[in-house]
Design a protein that fits this description.
Length: 101
């Protein structure tokens, strides 16, 4: 799926604020997902409560989070959680851009 540059930039900017991260890619979805997976893996190891708070704040469905947390290893878990986060943030960015006045 080809995403508009404005949608990716909006999503990247919002994720930078949420994760307090600098220089998240804003032009390549795969690159953004890879960087997000790294951030999620780091939080899984060091601050699970913060990660859960972020997931709640972003409004990722609890059942999807539980399914991702049941993954066979930390790498798969981080990847699945990052995909959920990115999908939800893209939805929200699309809505923001669609109804922007």
């Amino acid at each position: 799926m080809k995403l508009s540059p404005a949608l990716l930039a909006n999503t990247s900017t919002h994720l930078q604020r949420i994760f307090e991260a600098d220089n998240l890619p804003s032009t390549d979805t795969l690159e953004l997902l890879t960087k997000l997976t790294t951030l999620v893996a780091q939080l899984l190891r060091t601050d699970l409560n913060r990660l859960l708070h972020i997931l709640y704040r972003i409004d990722v469905e609890e059942q999807k989070v539980k399914a991702a947390m049941a993954a066979e290893n930390e790498e798969a878990m981080a990847r699945q959680l990052a995909q959920l986060i990115l999908a939800r943030e893209l939805e929200k960015a699309y809505t923001r851009l669609k109804y922007k006045s």
